[in-house]
Amino acid sequence: MTNTAVCMEQRETTLRFSRIKNYVRQPHIVISLVLLVILLIIVILPFARMIEDSFVWQFADTRLSRNAEPGGLTLFHWKRVFASALTQNILYRPLINSVSTSLSVSLVAMFIGSFLAWLVSRTDLPFKKIIATMAVLPYVIPSYIHALAWLNLFKNSRIGGAAGVFQYLTGITPPDWLSYGYFPIVVTLSIHYFPFTFLLVSAALTSIDSRLEESGEILGATRFHILRRITFPLVLPALLSSFILTFSRVLGTFGTPYFLGTPVRYYTLSTQIYSNIINRIPSVGYILAFVLIIISSAVIYINQRMIGRSKSFVTIAGKGFRVTETPLEKLRYPLLCLIGLLFVASVILPLVLLVWQTLTLYPNDYSIKHLTLLFWIGKANTAFAEGEAGILRNPAIIGAAWNSIKLALVSSVIAGFIGIFIGYAVVKGRNTKLASAVEQMSFLPYLVPGIAFGALYLALFSHRFGPLPALYGTFTLVALVCIAKNLPFTGRAGITSMLQIGSELEEASETLGARWVTRFRRIILPLSIQGAISGFILVFITVMRELSLIILLVTPETRTLTTMTFRYQEQGYTQFSSAISVLIIIIVIFGESLSRRFGKKNGI
Amino acid sequence: MHEKRKEFMERPIIEVENLTKVFGSVVAVDNVTFSINEKEFLILLGPSGCGKTTILRMIAGLEIPTEGEIRLNGRVVFSSEKGVFIPARERDVGLVFQSYALWPHMTVFQNIAFGLKVKRETAPQIEKKVSDIISYMQLEGLKDRYPQEMSGGQQQRVALARMLVSQPDILLMDEPLSNLDAKLRLDMRAEIKNIHAQTGATTVYVTHDQVEAQTMASNIAVINKGIIEQIAPPKTIYNRPANLFVADFIGSPSINLIEGTTEAGEDDGKMSVRNELFSLKTSCSGVPAGRSVVAAIRPENISIVPSEGVNTLEGEVRTILPSGPETILRVRCERYVFSLLLMQQVTLSPGQKVHLSLPPEKILVFDKETENLLPLD
User: Fold this and answer.
1) Residue A459, Cα to own-chain centre: how many angstroms?
2) Is B115 in contact with A502 (Cβ distance < 8 A)?
3) CB distance B162–A502 less than 8 Å?
4) CA dist A339 → A109, A201, A326, A331 (Å)
5) Which residue in A148, A96, A105 sits closest to A266, CA to CA?
6) Nearest Cβ partner of A511 from B84, B88, B104?
7) Contact by Cβ (8 Å): A511, B173
8) pLDDT band at A520, cuts 50/70/90?
């Protein structure tokens, strides 16, 4: 009796064992498992490490507390942030500043963006196509460049350093509120982010059949009534999500609040994280990063929930619907002028100011007779800028440019490839727990604001951790963080293209005797690469203009164009920082037009 | 009977034993056992979601069964007991997908040549085999086209050519004709039947189209909710369905069902089915009286007769649906509505009273509880 029981048990065990063996032998399972390990290291581990570090005394803490025993456990940092005399300055004020600037920017950007979207897609405004193309430009330019342009214009001499064009031309010293802090931050970031709302709302508006509006008209409703009762509710989901996504992006922005806020001690959470880490109180920075992640995740979660519920009527796109244009009548040209002004303020003026700045010999002298190409092509001359050569012949800057390009190339190619693998694993393993674990983990970096993600990596890689080497100061680390941060985008793209390909194309080659490597090389890769190329370029551009993410991780050897801009601006060499900014803009716009061409070709 | 079958039987090529597939908590295929002989054409027929495609995919090696054993050509390709799983690429079976699954980035030639290249055949060999199959499938002049530049019918031919060029012993087809229009489907049915006759490859073909199944199969397996309800030649499936599900699923319009209890026959020992409305003589015998049963008769087996006689019912014509040579008639008898399929054009009008004749030898009787067909004797 017991014998048969033992036999049964053995049989059960061998059955289970062979089942596991067969399961694991499937290529997509192997890929999922490998991805899971990678994601665990580059996404989950930094997070765990950051939390851990916030509970441990650091070496530098001996300056702050007599009780500090490096390596020992403590609640010191948490207390310092949440319950100490410093809480007001470390947490509350930056939090309030972060939230108030983010809210204001989201509101202003939403207003401008949606109004412009309506004008372009629903009225008889002239030059609509050109306006639609140009409206995206402010978003293509890195956000902190608007801040630099603002400083070139409105900087006052009170803080020290050279004053801006405004003071030079009028002789009036701009007041602090105009030069620094809340107001300029909101203006420059609104200018940067309105295209985001514009894109989302235009997409929603063009997908609404205007017969819905016409039927309102037939029933005798006024234009305004139709706008309010029919059009507005239909685009509401797009408006909401553009509001929330703008909010969470502004929350994690570092460059602009740093350039425009820090000089007058106007801190936001992101600049507070930076200064705590720079001032060697990383644990406090980590806790603030944690706070930022929580807020950002909550906001994005709310957005997903709301979109999930109301998506049904955003996507009523049907073929063959008509769009009736609302005549603007007398307002046609005044509105066109207004848009022209917006474009000048958001694209032309910043560029002109930047270029002008690069041509000034002395930072506060904007007169024509003193214009020079010294900062572009000048040889090293001890009379200016402490003997630094113009950027086009400055080895440090050329080195940084190569670093930037190398970083952008390496990260976009690797992130793109991992994205394809994520797509393959997720689509092949549809509805399994393993696949959804891979999908969700690859999405996590999206929840973490750039500066906080940099902080996570600093926490994990600043010293050896188990088998992981101390990567701080290496190119690998900077590339790693850029790859991880962009995985949500490439992963999404990979999933979409893999869904389009479908699994049967691969299975067909499998039944014909092809091994997995052949299947991947001959079938999956050629089919998914087309969709992936525009994704590659997108990541390339993102990394090219990345500042918040890498500012904490870059050392002199690994510096990029963006961090060079940052350093020069910090040291007051505005000609250099402006010149490098112009360089970045040129590269980014070139990349953008490239991606548009690829996008068109692939019908994306 | 058993002896006769054994003599008939040749070598089994595909053997499936106790095959089970569970997706999460859903049992898609439930302990299925069958075997297919050499050169046989088996059709897996069933409603959508019944597990027929899953069975096919498990034979192909694209899905790992949860339990059971599969042998192809005598070789064990899957066995949960022995811990064997041979992946699809080592099974040497040809598979045609419902979507054709042609590679959009390859030309017709490249699509067809792929399997040969993978098997490392020489270039001249590949060239010859591909051109042969291209002319066999009448695809001349299309070899440099891309799949998306061709019609559905041509794509279907390429998919078949791609499968046939490797000359597999076993052909698997997953609803290959469901994306074609009605006329093309008829042509392709003939074509596939022709291919089967010429290659002699053992074929398993999945469809939910019963006409397709009736016209092409040497055997049909009717599948429902993951189990095989009946596996038999088309005629048997149609004339002697094993249970109520098969009876109801096969045939259009659906078979007519009449519930009742059995009653012993008067003189010839043949029993009758009786309910509160009518009593029908059947050709069954040897069933105890008083059993709850369901009598069934195919629409084309009912005829209209001028006067009352054996097994006639009086009814009233409800609807007339003429379609070319045949006419579908719905006739109401009390609470039953009978479907009739008449191979002629009729001159009846709705509301007219008619007499229906239900010949006893055409009446099938199923046990109401087990839903199984009761034997004739």
Assistant:
1) 21
2) no
3) no
4) 14, 17, 17, 12
5) A96
6) B88
7) no
8) very high
User: Which amino acid belongs to residue B274?
Assistant: R
For A310, counting Cβ atoms within 10 Å of its Cβ (0-12 exposed, 13-18 middle, 19+ buried), the class is middle
What is the pairing mode between strands B170-174 and B93-96? Answer: parallel
**Min Cα–Cα distance to chain A from B37, Å:** 21
Residue of A nearest to B60 (CA): A511
Of B66, B103, B118, the CB nearest to A513: B118
Q: What is the dihedral of CA A273, A482, A346, A328, to 10 degrees?
A: -110
Q: Residue A462 and residue A478: Cα distance in Å, rounded?
A: 12
Q: Give the whole-angstrom CA distance, residue A100 versus residue A269.
A: 12
Cβ contact B36:B204 at 8 Å? yes
Q: What are B338's two structure tokens?
A: 């009978």
Residue B221 near residue B352 (C-beta atoms within 8 A): no
Contact at CB, B95 and A507, closer than 8 angstroms: yes
3-class state of residue A446 by DSSP: helix
The angle that helices B123-136 and B108-118 make with each other, rounded to 10 degrees, is: 130
Distance from C-alpha of A51 to C-alpha of A197, rounded to nearest angstrom: 35
What pTM, to 2 d.p., does this model score?
A: 0.81
ipTM confidence: 0.84
B110 to chain A: nearest residue by CA?
A: A522
Q: Any long-range contacts for B262-268 (C-beta under 8 Å, 24+ apart)?
A: B262/B287, B262/B288, B262/B289, B262/B290, B262/B291, B262/B293, B262/B365, B263/B289, B263/B290, B264/B289
Q: Which residue of B has its CA nearest to A507?
A: B62
Tens-digit pLDDT profile for residues B132-180: 999 999 998 998 999 999 998 999 999 999 999 999 999 999 999 988 8
Contacts of B104 in chain A (CB under 8 A): 527
Provide the H-helix boundaries in A512-573. Answer: 516-519, 525-544, 561-571
Q: Phi and psi for B346 in degrees, rounded to 5? A: -115, 160
